Amino acid sequence: MYIKKLATIFVVLLFFSTVAIRMVSAQTETPTPASSDNSSTVKALNDKIAELEKKVSDLRSQGDSLSSQIAVMDNQITLTEARIDSTKQEMEQVTTDIDSASKRMKNLEGSLSDVTKVLINRIVATYQVGETSPMELLLSSGDISDFFERANYLRIVQAHDKQLLYDTQQAKNDYANQKAIFEDKKKKIESLQTQLEDYTKQLDAQKEDKKKLLAETLGNEANYQKLLSQAKAQLAGFSRFATSQGGASLLSGQTSCDDWGCYYNQRDAQWGGNSLNGTQYTLASDGCLITSMAMMFTHYGHRDVTPQTINGNSNNFASYYPAYLKYAIAANGASASRVGASLSDISSGPLVVGISYGNGGTHFVVMVKKDADGSYIMNDPFVEGGHNVKFTDHYSLGSIFEVSRVVM
């Protein structure tokens, strides 16, 4: 009679365990991979992007002419459009992954709930059978065959119990993994959305640059060459200034912030050795204007902006000469423009001032204020410790060739 009861309960327990294992296993299958069509589309777009990047690079090396520059711009626009399409495809793929992870999380929640019920039933069933010691099992057995049969039933039930507990824990782990995947995909989609917005802004800026270049040159090669000559002259002047000062050696511990804003030095080791927008120039030797503008950003409350922040946005530089900083720039979501002014405008706020120095050298500083005694105080981005120093201790007022106020 005992063995019949044990067999009946064994069947019930085995049923509970088998059902639970199947429920858990059904929810822990490998996720279905993303559509091959979508992956093929993304790959094709990435191949197109690589091809366009090479084409833009090849066109840039073909010489300085208006026609070649327009060709570069047209291909840059096409390149950005391809990047936008690729980002949209990737967003679509990630959105599908998010939906899949969300469904699997929901299914796993239901599975874990069902498994919990099964485990409760197992506890009840085990309690009904009671805990039988080997001695009790031996004494209650009719013969040795009956003993081994009963013992075998118990071993099988115990094995299924272990499997059920293992699969329950596995389901919990899978749920945690799916939740982590879900959170990662959410962050990824947010990152892609930001990237898409950046590319869209970049596309608008590139189209505007082309429009502006055509307007500035009137589609005329001579006008284009004039602009190009001015840009080259400015950078050559920066280099000559650095040479006149003994070279652009790197410095440390230059940054200083106060109520006015932050003082930056172009030769600071944090960024001084960096290439100026991917050109042969460096911030240390030719980054005076960028560094001056970064200081102006901090004066107007944008203390997260540094020379490298401005340098890191290629849209801040002229398309026809990538080392030439445009008059209207952006950094970390803030925009600033240099507009013509006079030194007397110092009473309304700091100014960016261009000076001529020595044999063809040029340099930019920030004119911070005018003291009561008539002295002008500047932040010089090249001179070591050039924070709040007297302008005429280093340069003459007659050397000033350009004055701009910054509008934000």
Structure write-up:
This protein has 408 residues and is α+β, with helices and mostly antiparallel strands. It has two domains: 2-215, no CATH class; 223-407, no CATH class. It contains nine helices and eleven strands. The chain has a seven-stranded antiparallel β-sheet. A hairpin with a 2-residue loop joins strand 3 (317-318) and strand 4. Helix 1 runs parallel beside helix 5 and helix 2 runs antiparallel to helix 3 (66-129). It is elongated. The chain starts with a helix and ends with a strand. The model is unreliable at 1-16 and 28-33 (pLDDT under 50).
List how many beta strands DSSP finds: 11
Individual helix count: 9
For the residues shown, what is the average pLDDT? 82
Question: Low-confidence spans: pLDDT under 50, at least 5 residues?
Answer: 1-16, 28-33
Short description:
By secondary structure, the chain is an alpha+beta fold. The chain is built from nine helices and eleven strands.
Topology (SSEs and partners):
Layout: H1 2-27, H2 36-60, H3 66-129, H4 134-140, H5 144-217, H6 221-244, E1 256-257, E2 262-263, H7 283-286, H8 288-299, H9 307-311, E3 317-318, E4 321-325, E5 328-331, E6 334-340, E7 351-357, E8 361-370, E9 376-379, E10 389-390, E11 400-407
Antiparallel strand pairs: 1-2, 3-4, 5-6, 6-11, 7-8, 7-11, 8-9, 9-10
Summarize this structure as a short list of keywords or feature phrases.
elongated, alpha+beta, 9 helices, 408 residues, 11 strands, 7-stranded antiparallel β-sheet
